[in-house]
Each structure stands twice: as C-alpha cells, then as structure tokens.
Amino acid sequence: MPAVAKPVRSLPTLQKLGATVNRDLDAQAIAKEWFLVFADAMSSGDHITVANLLVEDAFWRDLLALTWDFHTYEGRDIIQQFIADQLPNIGPSRFRIRNDLTQLYVPYEDIVCIQAFFDFETTVGYASGIFRLVPLADGSWRAHTVFTNLEDLRDFPEKTGALRDHEPYHKEWVESREREHEFFDMEPGVVIIGGGQSGLTVAARLKALGINALVVERNKRIGDNWRNRYATLCTHSTVWYDHFPYMPFPSSWPVYRSAAKLGDWLEAYAHSLELNVWTSAEVVSVEPGTQGKKWSVKVVRDDGRECVFQVNHVVFASGIGGGLPNIPNIPCQAEFKGQILHSSQYKRATDHLGKKVVVIGACTSAHDICADCVDHGVDVTMVQRSSTYIMSVKEGMLRLTGGLYFENGPPTDVADRINASFPNFFLKLMHQRMVKDLAEADKDILDGLRRVGFKLNFGDEGSGPLQLILKRGGGFYFDVGASQKIIDGEIKLKSNSSIARFTPHGLLFEDGSTLDAEVVIFATGRTAYLRLLPNYLHDAVQPIWGLDDEGELHSVAREVGGRGPQAAKVAGLWSMSGNMAVCRFHSKHVALREWFCLS
Fold first, then answer.
1. DSSP 37
2. CA dihedral of 556, 560, 564, 568, whole degrees rounded to 10
C-alpha cells in the first residue's frame, strides 16, 4: 500500500462539520439510505463509492472480518486503498441492516451521530458491523467510523443454543469425561498456559467450535489465582461488565465481587463447561516441535509425571506479565532486617499486627493493601514513586463505559460490539473530554490528595485510564475509599523523594530522609514472560501490551510475533490477557483464528 498521510485527528463536532441537526430526524430512514449505497458498493467491489460515503478523517476498524487480523485504518484515502485491496479477496455479500439497533447517538451536545448495526457474509464466514454517520453542512450524512467483526466461520458455527447436541447420552458419562480430561484417546488440539479468566474463556470458545484444549494451571485449584491473593481483594469493575461467555453471572450477584467468590466462579465455570484443566501442573518449556507439529510443549504434573505434547497452537494466558512478580532492584536489600514481600505474597493485614509496614507503589494493589492495614490498626506508609491516575468508582464507571454495562444497559453482546467499534485513537480524543468532566465530579477527592502531596496525572495526554490500561496494564486506581484514608492521614504518604537504598531498619531516600519499616511490600506489578521459550526466539516476540501504529494492542488476543519482522518464527504462539470483558470478547477471535488454522 503506498504511503498516504493520515489526517489530523479531531472529534466530529457540529462546529467542525459546519452542521446543524434537527433532533426529531428519522434516524432509521437516513441510516437506511446511506446503507443501501454502501451495501451495493461493497458487494460489487466499488471501493471508490465506499470511500465517498466517508468523511475525510474517517476510521475503519476491522477485527478478522476483512483482514484476518486486527487493523484500524485512518483517513478516507487510506481506507479506500484498504477496501480496494481486500474486497476481491473476501467477497462480501448479503448485507442486512439492523433497524432495531439504529439510533441517534449524542455523547455530547456538540457531537451528534446516527449509529446502526448491520450483518453481512464473506467467503470465510459471517460478520457484523457498526457505522456512525455524522451530518455535513449541506444536509447530507457520511460515516465517521465503520467497524467490521467476524462472528462465525462459514459452515462451522459454535455448537451452542439450537446447535447444541440433541441426542440422548446413554454412555457412562463419568468414565467418558475422565478419558477426555486426561487425553487418553487423543492429543489436545491446543495447549493453554494458565487457568484464569484468560485461559478458561479461550478453552470455552475452542470447545464450542469442537476443539478440545488442555489448560495447564500451576495452582492446586481452578480459581486459586484469585483466592490466593490478599483476602480483601474485590473487583473494581461491575458484574455487568465482567460476564463470562456462555454462562453469565446470576442476576442475584452483587455488583462487585470478592476475589474468593470470583475464584469459586472460575472453578464452577470450568466444571460446568467441561473444560480440560490440569491443576498442580506446570508447562516447563515450549520449543519448536517435531513430528510435523509447530511446537513441543513439556508439562510436569504434581506427581512428577512428564507429558510432552506436539501441537500447532499454544496460548500464553498466565496473566499480565505472565504472573511473575516484579521487584525493583533497590540497593542493599540484603541489609534489611525485616520482611520483604511482593503484593502477590501479601494475604491479610492481621499477619502484620504491631509492625510498621511500608508499601512501595501507588496503584490498585498498593491502595487496597494500605486500606486493609488501616482497617486493622496496622501502621502503614505508602511510598509513591511516580504519579497515579485516580478516579472514583462512583463517578467514573458509568462515564468510562459509556453506560453500556449496567442493569438497564443493552445485552452484553451488543454492548461488546459497540465498545469495540470505537478505534483506540478516537477513544483517546473522547476520553480527554470525559476526564475533564470526571475530574470536576471528583474535585473534592483530587484536591484533597494534592494537599497531602499525592502526585496525580490525568493519563496519556489527559486521556484518563484507558490508554494506561492499553499501554501498561496499570498506572491507575479506581477509588473505593482508600483515597480518603490518604487525605485523612490514616494511610501515611511518602512522595517527595526517590528511594536511594534499603537500610537495616527501613529505607533511605535521596533527600537524606529515612523511613522505618519492619515489613516492606512491593506493589509494583509483574514482569513479561519469555522464560518458557528458547533464548533465540525471544527477539521474535513483540510486546504483549502497548499499541502499534494503528492503535491496536501488540499481542493481546493475537500471535505473540504480531506484525513484527520475525513473526514467522513464533507462528502459532498466542497471547490472551486482560480483564474479564476483554477475555469474553477477544477469546472468540483467538478461537476463530486457531480453528481456521487447524482446519
């Protein structure tokens, strides 16, 4: 594709467009008129007409439907070239608009769009789409964003609902299930490393497509990745946002769930969907395969047995950073006479009664641990090394999710597609507005934190938590009460100097000040994982988190080589990571691509 300059990014405000809108307009009629021309042009391969239906600075985000990868194209000229290249290959046809999901979308008074869903087919499968039309000065409407998403493979849909098995089961189920779980009669089609939400959702998606995956989980029980963390851990995202595929949470569940409760849910989920999970087992190596397969995976079980599987696909799903604690190399740690822990090793404040505790870090885990200590009378100081984005759950969650994931919100599958239909670079612009509104709503908390010296930021270029999540997987705290404890001095704060080194009795800072401690807890995240691969393949692996030039995540829900120059060396190695909403939606993309490759 020849190099074409991208337009300057800006929001499609009425002022910029030079347009006015009568709010009593017939959104369905306008959407249908635009869509009929769009559908005919796409079906006939007329890329010029398709481009002419877009504004100059339009976005088109495609998830597998047209490109078999994750892409965001920006600018009408670039989109036109993309469409010209792809239409002959994917043969789109049978376009149908969803009138029931066509509506006026007004996120701000000066941003007015018509949002509509549509379905279509390609040579590969069945797809869905969303377009948003904006008004122009001449009274016409053109698309500012188009989103296309692969839903199912042609002739191989998920075996759910009406397509589930309808035959009576007269075999001995317990014995049959045991043979399947132990892979006595066949090799697994895919090996998944990690049995948290990432691994289980991918396994569930693959099973719905008829592929038995082996999930290898090093903990004793499914869900221990949540149970074994600190006892007061609770989700800061809502129950509506966190539903699992095929098996949503009960309508009686609380909005926010404890870690132990969520751990039990993961275990019930795996058993109910008959997923093949080996607990107390560990993958010790992933090396280029033999016997005609791409990868050789060695698994060691709790009784010492070694199993080697030859597979074409391996999914790394052991959490952000692969589950390895990140402990900064602060000098003189060996001199410290107290206890050093990582947040993953912290269980409860009552283990440290009567001791001076220092928590290094100022994001979610640090706040939760400090609040737990205060609630149990433990002297605790938070050491903040860099600024943190803070928003209250009360004010922030509704704004952050655009009202999609709440009691009276749209169905989860509809919400997921709306959520995914906004390109990340466009969301950054929208969130820069949202963050200003939210900061005003949280003014008392933010002002209070500033007064006591807590260092705040507003995210990447003022865009809030989303870009921090996408680029770092952290760097924020959604406040559920710890911020007020900092303001009130219940959680002590040290934020005015960097740590120089440990001392026998605590920490020395670069300004010469000291901080006594008997327990130091690092709430400093986790490091990336490469330990299972041979050293000579490490350079082929792209970063897991972070955004590429198109605004797509480097390797989440994609092959770990991404679009890097050495991607072919690690073809068939995948990464699945993220919160429950990310796993619910993108686990299907991983499964569809793996099924297609396996078939």
1. H
2. -140
DSSP letter string, 314-368: EEE-S-GGGGEE-----TTGGG--SEEEEGGG---GGGGTTSEEEEE--SHHHHH
pLDDT digits (tens, 9 = 90+) for 393-436: 999 988 888 889 999 999 999 999 999 999 999 999 999 999 99
**What are the backbone dihedrals phi and psi of residue 55, each rounded to the nearest 5 degrees, phi first?**
-75, 165
Strands 282-288 and 295-300, by their bridges, are antiparallel
**pLDDT score, position 401:** 85
323 has a pLDDT exceeding 60: no
CA distance 543 to 534: 17
Helix axes 197-208, 259-272, angle to 10 degrees: 20
Q: Retrieve residue 571's tokens.
A: 């073809």
pLDDT class for 1, splitting at 50, 70, 90? very low
Region of residue 473 (left: phi > 0; alpha: psi -120 to 50; beta: else): left
Q: Give the Cα separation of 405 and 398 in Å (integer).
A: 8
- Fill in the amino acid letter for 43: S
Encode pLDDT of 474-494 as tens digits.
889 999 999 999 999 999 999
Composition of the chain by helix, strand, coil, percent to 5: 35, 25, 40
DSSP string, 529-550: --TTS-GGGGGGPPPSSSB-TT
For 439-453, what is the mean pLDDT?
97
For the chain, what percent of residues have pLDDT higher than 90?
A: 83
CA distance 415 to 583: 14
Phi and psi at residue 497, to the nearest 5°: -160, 150
Three-state secondary structure call for residue 29 = helix
Axis-axis angle for helices 580-598, 412-420 (nearest 10): 80
**Separation between Cα atoms, residue 541 and residue 212, nearest integer Å:** 26
Q: What angle (nearest 5°) sits at the alpha carbon of residue 229, between those of residues 331 and 520?
A: 25
